[in-house]
């Protein structure tokens, strides 16, 4: 969903299309150092997920005494225009984050074999020597969120509202139930899927499904319905007296007292590490980031949890229990299976 690099000017035609370029050179940056271009799928604004991506580009530029800039896109057309503009500037690395970039990166990688790309949170269907993919093992974090739900549930029933009923998205439902069962044997999972023509932007449907789960006695719900869809999950949770979990970034401030915790994708860690790998010549492969690599975590397991406005901050005993499970996953003594691989 993002690409990064040094771009100081954007052609007038691209600006007219609504693209927003913000060129930045961190302190200590050197024009002779490596350049990094970040292209976001949406305006950064207050989006914590995208702010982490920007931080990753800044960290990578600072570590290598280089420069970085950010292109903020608004729609599919501006995504294509921004990536093309980034490639024209010939930075050392163009970073793109999210499945939105799959087609345009495949096209640009074929047309510009000397340009290096870091593709985060997805990968091109065909492997290219100049495209390094960085993917998340989000199911490990979902398992830990499920363990929190299992420790807190009063009914023994947990649920999930997920955008699409497909193997990749079962990473947000199946491990949630397994985590709950790990700490509360016999806990039951009820997953529901939004589907339809617009599964990633249907808060009404997400709200309806969450209400259905509440009516079945579910008291903790994993919401994996994108940012807009999760608003529907949180609204229904508040109305029906149940609790919810968020994904990708800290969503607790949006619904304090309702959101227990969040499965965080540390795009800053992944981008900084991935850029370093490319600059070191380790290119064209797929790199996997989970609990061990600190690419996946929970808001509740971060040092500033007390400021998170998450419900889990009021349950330090549960965090201690889940922290032990995290350590077991990192050590390899506890394995969480990938539902998309079965």
Ranges where pLDDT stays below 50 over 5 or more residues in a row are 1-19, 22-28
Largest sheet: 8 strands, mixed
Rg result: 20 Å
Q: Mean pLDDT, rounded to whole units?
A: 90
Order of helices and strands: EHEEHEHEHEEHEHEHEHEEHEEH
Structural class: alpha/beta
Number of strands: 14
List descriptors.
single chain; 342 residues; alpha/beta; eight-stranded mixed beta sheet; six-stranded mixed beta sheet; 37% helix; disordered N terminus
Summarize the structure.
The protein is an alpha/beta fold and 342 residues long. The chain has ten helices and 14 strands. Helices cover 37% and strands 21% of the residues.
Give a structural overview.
The protein is an alpha/beta fold and 342 residues long. Helices cover 37% and strands 21% of the residues. It contains 10 helices and 14 strands. Strands 1, 2, 3, 4, 5, 6, 7 and 13 form an 8-stranded mixed beta sheet that branches. Strand 3, helix 2 and strand 4 (67-72) form a beta-alpha-beta unit. Helix 7 packs parallel to helix 8. The two termini are 26 Å apart.
Task: Tell me the layout of helices and strands.
Blueprint: E1 4-5, H1 12-16, E2 20-24, E3 35-40, H2 48-63, E4 67-72, H3 76-88, E5 93-97, H4 102-111, E6 117-120, E7 131-136, H5 138-152, E8 157-162, H6 174-183, E9 188-193, H7 203-215, E10 220-224, H8 226-240, E11 243-248, E12 259-265, H9 267-279, E13 286-289, E14 296-298, H10 316-331
Parallel strand pairs: 3-4, 3-5, 5-6, 6-7, 7-13, 8-9, 8-10, 10-11, 11-12
Antiparallel strand pairs: 1-4, 2-4, 12-14
Helix pairs in contact: 2-9, 5-6, 5-10, 7-8
């Amino acid at each position: 969903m993002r690409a990064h690099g040094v771009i100081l000017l954007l052609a007038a035609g691209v600006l007219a299309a609504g693209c927003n370029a913000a060129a930045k050179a961190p302190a200590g940056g050197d024009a002779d150092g490596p350049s990094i271009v970040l292209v976001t799928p949406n305006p950064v604004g207050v989006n914590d997920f995208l702010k982490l991506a920007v931080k990753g580009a800044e960290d990578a530029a600072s570590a290598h005494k280089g420069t970085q800039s950010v292109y903020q896109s608004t729609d599919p057309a501006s995504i294509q225009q921004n990536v093309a503009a980034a490639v024209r500037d010939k930075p050392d690395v163009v970073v793109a984050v999210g499945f939105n970039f799959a087609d345009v990166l495949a096209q640009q990688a074929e047309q510009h074999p000397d340009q290096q790309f870091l593709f985060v949170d997805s990968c091109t269907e065909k492997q290219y020597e100049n495209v390094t993919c960085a993917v998340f093992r989000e199911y490990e974090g979902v398992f830990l969120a499920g363990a929190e739900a299992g420790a807190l549930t009063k009914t023994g029933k947990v649920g999930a509202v997920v955008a699409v009923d497909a193997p990749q998205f079962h990473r947000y439902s199946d491990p949630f139930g397994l985590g709950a069962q790990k700490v509360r044997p016999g806990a039951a999972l009820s997953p529901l899927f939004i589907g339809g023509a617009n599964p990633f932007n249907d808060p009404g449907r997400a709200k309806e499904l969450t209400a259905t789960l509440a009516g079945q006695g579910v008291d903790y719900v994993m919401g994996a319905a994108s940012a807009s869809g999760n608003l529907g999950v949180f609204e229904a949770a508040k109305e029906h007296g149940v609790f919810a979990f968020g994904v990708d970034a800290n969503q607790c401030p949006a619904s304090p007292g309702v959101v227990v915790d969040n499965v965080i994708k540390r795009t800053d860690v992944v981008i900084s590490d991935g850029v370093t790998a490319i600059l070191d010549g380790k290119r064209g492969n797929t790199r996997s980031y989970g609990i061990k690599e600190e690419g996946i975590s929970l808001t509740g397991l971060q040092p500033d949890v007390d400021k998170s406005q998450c419900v889990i901050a009021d349950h330090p005993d549960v965090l201690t229990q889940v922290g032990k499970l995290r350590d077991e996953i990192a050590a390899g003594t506890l394995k969480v299976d990938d539902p998309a691989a079965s």
